[in-house]
Amino acid sequence: MEQQPQSPLAAVKLDEETQKTPPQPPATTHLCTPTTTNAAGTCCSCGGPTSITPPPPTWSEISPPPNYRPIRSPAINLPPNYSQQAIILAPVPQSQKVPIVSPPYLFQSPSKRILSPDDIRHFQESDSGKNFLGFIVALSESIRGHKISDPCHQSDTLNSIVSILDTLIRWIDEIPPVQQAARYGNYSFRVWHNRLVESSESLMLEFLPEELRSATVEIVPYFTDSFGNSSRIDYGTGHETNFAAWLYCLARIGVLKEEDYHAVVSRVFVKYLNLMRKLQTVYCLEPAGSHGVWGLDDYHFLPFIFGSSQLIDHRYMKPKSIHNQDILENFSDEYLYLSCIAFVKKVKKGLFAEHSPLLDDISGVPNWNKVNSGLLKMYKAEVLEKVPIMQHFLFGWLIKW
After folding, report:
1. Bridge pairing between strands 394-395 and 111-112
2. Angle at 141 between CA 222 and CA 383, to 5 degrees
3. What pLDDT shows up at residue 218?
4. Is residue 351 exposed (0-12), middle (13-18) or buried (19+ Cβ within 10 Å)?
5. What is the CATH classification number for the domain harbouring 333?
6. Considering the domain boundaries, does residue 103 fall inside one?
7. Residues 211-257: tens digit of each pLDDT
8. CA distances in angstroms from 294 to 77, 117, 291, 373, 382, listed in the order given
9. Which helix (H) or strand (E) holds 10?
10. Separation between Cα atoms, residue 99 and residue 352, nearest integer Å
């Protein structure tokens, strides 16, 4: 238990008791009243030692007190050597309506454009950057207060996308991992990914209407780059962001509508997360750009955002509830955040506070609303504003440079 600093009232009472029964000083000690002493225990008049114990220092003299965590500390502690002020003072991202394109369609093969921090700023200040982040916020708001199993509007397009993801999951069973000495990166993933690339266009045509079939040239690259890199055999938040960009492109061409957003998270994204966990465990994908123990997660970020939104204003489950194993076992199927915590505890050994200190710190935040807003700001700063991640991001006609 943390040591609590002595209150001013307690100090006054202690001082009063000392005045009532003052200790007998040694003969060589100068007698002074409490009002003539300073913090060093010396007389203000003659400078000699006093018989009165100096009062405990105020908080301002030893700020912050030992073992004391201020009430207004940052909601989410960040990795060492990171400028916390940039995230703490940043405004919380707001949802934005996705601007839908209209004919004539000018679909084009997207390309990489980000090479420097200046390019990052250009994208973040552009309408494309604001609309894309606003789309992610809108998805987060659509699932607020809902369990995964809650009924929602499911269009034929959404059902087709879920079916496509089920197909990709079946491919994993058809392409077992090979025996190899390397810990990470099973070569069978390349076989799986090659099949994905070869079939991606036909998969898109399963749900695209006739007038939008030409969109495959632009949306297929986002889709194929959503499941990891076949050369490095790794996966990270950049690939996850590509999946969000693919969904954003579908919203831009009007295939996904606002009434679909709830199902986009609870049906499509949940299925995508299940697929990626299977790919990660079966083919031992290496984490791409992981922050190690100071990262939120080795592979994912968005399910923590969506999952924290689900739990906003929940009557019983608080951020600290992640330490309750019964809650994780009984509710991880319904709440993305709890599902992520349960998966982390399953695949990592040792104390939770040691292998996932950032998640452990977040459990001390008082409510889910603060967790959600903090994660949104952190996603913008740690993913969308990082050159090593965004240098692989693609720009075309739907997401303009």
Report:
1. antiparallel
2. 45
3. 98
4. exposed
5. 1.20.120.1150
6. no
7. 999 999 999 999 999 999 999 999 999 999 999 999 999 999 999 99
8. 10, 22, 5, 19, 12
9. helix 8-20
10. 42
State yes or no: cis peptide before 22, omega within 30 of 0. no
Q: What is the number of alpha carbons within 13 Å of residue 318 lying toward its C-beta?
A: 7
Summarize the chain as % helix, strand, coil (round to 5).
50, 5, 45
Residue type, 394: L
Tell me how crowded residue 382 is: count the other CB atoms within 10 A of its CB. Answer: 21
What is the number of structural domains in the chain? 2
User: Angle at Cα 219 formed by Cα 396 and Cα 196, nearest 5°?
Assistant: 135
Looking up tokens 């409490």 gives 34
154 and 281, same domain (yes or no): yes
pLDDT at 96: 95
Is the same domain home to 265 and 281? yes
Residues 313 and 281 in one domain: no
Residue 389 and residue 325 in contact, taking contact as beta carbons nearer than 8 Å:
no
> From the first residue on, what is the mean pLDDT of each consecutive set of 10 residues in the chain (401 residues)?
44 44 48 47 56 51 41 48 67 95 97 97 97 98 98 96 98 96 91 98 98 98 98 96 99 98 98 98 89 79 98 96 96 98 93 93 96 96 94 97 94
Nearest to 156 by CA among 273, 245, 269, 267: 267
| Whole-structure pTM value | 0.79
Query: In terms of residue numbers, what domain contains 222?
Result: 150-288
- CA–CA separation, 189 vs 329, rounded Å? 30
Same domain, 250 and 366: no
Q: How many CB atoms lie within 10 A of CB 217?
A: 15
- How many other CB atoms are there within 10 angstroms of residue 186's CB atom? 22
